[in-house]
Amino acid sequence: MRGALAALGGLIAGLAALCVAELVSAAVRPEAGPVTAVGGAVIDRTPAPVKDFAVRNFGNDDKLVLQLGILALLALFAMAVGVASLRYRKVGSAAVLVFGAIGALAAVERPDGRVSDALPSIVGGLVACGVMYLLAGRLASRPSPHGDRGTDGAVTRTAETGGPAESTDGGTGTAPGTHPGSFDRRGFVIAATAAAAVSAGAGVLGRRLNASGAAEAAASRRTVVLPAPSSAAPPIPAGADLGIRGLSSFTTSNKDFYRVDTALVVPRVDAESWRLRIHGKGVPRPLTLSFQDLLQRKLIERDITLTCVSNEVGGPYVGNARWIGVPLADLLAEAGVKPPSKGGPADQLVSRSVDGMTIGTPVDAVMDGRDAMLAVGMNGEPLPFNHGFPVRMVVPGLYGYVSACKWLEDLELTTFADYDAYWVKRTWSRQAPIKTQSRIDTPRPFASPKAGKVPVAGVAWAQHRGIERVEVRVDGGAWNRAELAAEDSEDTWRQWLWEWPATSGSHTLEVRATDRDGNTQTDKRVGTVPNGATGWHSVVVAVD
């Protein structure tokens, strides 16, 4: 019984640490909470293959899985400390400070870490230490009212204070004159209940205070009215969406658009206070811009397909949306920036997010005439918070990790020789144009279509080059040219269809695409590291 209650006491101390830290984080910033800070530190140190495994197996739930894992480890550690405190009350209680130390260290070492970020974890750890010491005291063995008779017949009693006798190791082990099974059960229940209630109250209050800050950002987003673009996107061609069941829609809705980033807490940025700074090497006229400054400039509207480098062959991390934003090349030119191809000293544009993420993009790529932009709108509305409100970068033809900085706040001109961005430090390539890829959307793997004419359909993409043709084959046989949907632009994916005269039995379908530069997908399977996957997507079906 004492052991179980001691483990419960450890859990309550851990709860106190988290809830008090949540409350204190409301005075600092939500990202300073210990679970968020430790989770961010884990992401920062996760090897690329492990990260890819998480994205591949958990998708958009990878961050939830990480947070649940952290909480589970915290619970196990808290229970172990609680049990240890039965014998080593002081040492066990002090061990709870490990919660605070780990959280504080993780918080200040994040890319955007500040000294003040350590405060929630430190305060939470100190409170947990006090709670653990209090509860462990209630579980200490009580003194016997009659004492214990020693071997020489003498009676040994505890101190007049009635408290537990200290053991020689500094703990509160069972001493002469005590009953191992006797402890202040009522006192423990009262203290544990009070500690849990106060902790929960602190946590709820902290959540509400943090939510109030997010509410202000949400209110600022609701007031945004996107101006009509100076250069509107043409209507989507009538034949761009084939309307086949099971085939991805030409335009990906905001709620279905993939999200891959390192933010455990989605930044909620107030558009009113947001500022963007453009500076660095070869910038004779640095700029500082507000959100309204951007809205008052020339805006363009374009359909652009984005792709994550973590997208494996046939994977889901690709989507097409209609973006509205300010041409990035115009802003850089206004600041006096020249690309290296025209004598400029900087070849890398480092974009920084409010959460500390850094992304390096070739200056030549954003100034070569493509529709690179600082996007403020997505599919006819202000950017959703999950996708970078108030401003993000969009650069056609480059994987997101070298172009698509969300929650943007800083643009610095530098060189690839002088600075490695976040993912480059973690074994990914400095430059990463999107590779030509294709995917079978229907039939699904292991589907059982009826024999006869079966539509095989999917999407193919080669942003900034365009798709020339798509081919499908069955069981390693001859390649069959698929029908291509109407093209919106070279920066969007393209749907395709092949009518398959299916026969009964198990069959393997494969697809490959060729871009307008004449590059056909290789059959060589390569993983996503260091600059994108290659290989043919295939599905196995059993035709009835």
Give a description of the structure:
The chain is built from eleven helices and 22 strands. The N and C termini lie far apart (about 60 Å). Mean pLDDT is about 90; it is low at about 145-175. The chain has a five-stranded mixed beta sheet. Strands 7, 8, 11, 12 and 13 form a five-stranded antiparallel beta sheet that branches. Strand 9 and strand 10 form a beta hairpin. It has about 550 residues and is of the alpha+beta class. The chain has helices spanning about 1-30, 35-45, 50-60, 60-85, 90-95, 95-110, 120-140, 185-220, 290-295, 330-335, 365; strands at about 140-145, 150, 155, 180, 275-280, 285-290, 300-305, 320-325, 350-355, 360, 375-380, 380, 390-395, 410-415, 435-440, 450-460, 465-475, 480, 485, 495-500, 505-515, 535-544.
Task: Count helical runs.
Answer: 11
How many strand units? 22
Oligomer: single chain
Distance between the termini: 61 Å
- Basic shape: globular
Strand content: 15-25%
* Helical/strand content category: alpha+beta
Q: How many strands, which pairing sense, and closed or not: the largest β-sheet?
A: 5 strands, mixed
Low-confidence stretches: 147-175
Radius of gyration: 30 Å
Helix content: 25-40%
Q: What strand order characterises the main sheet?
A: 6-5-14-9-10
Mean pLDDT: 91
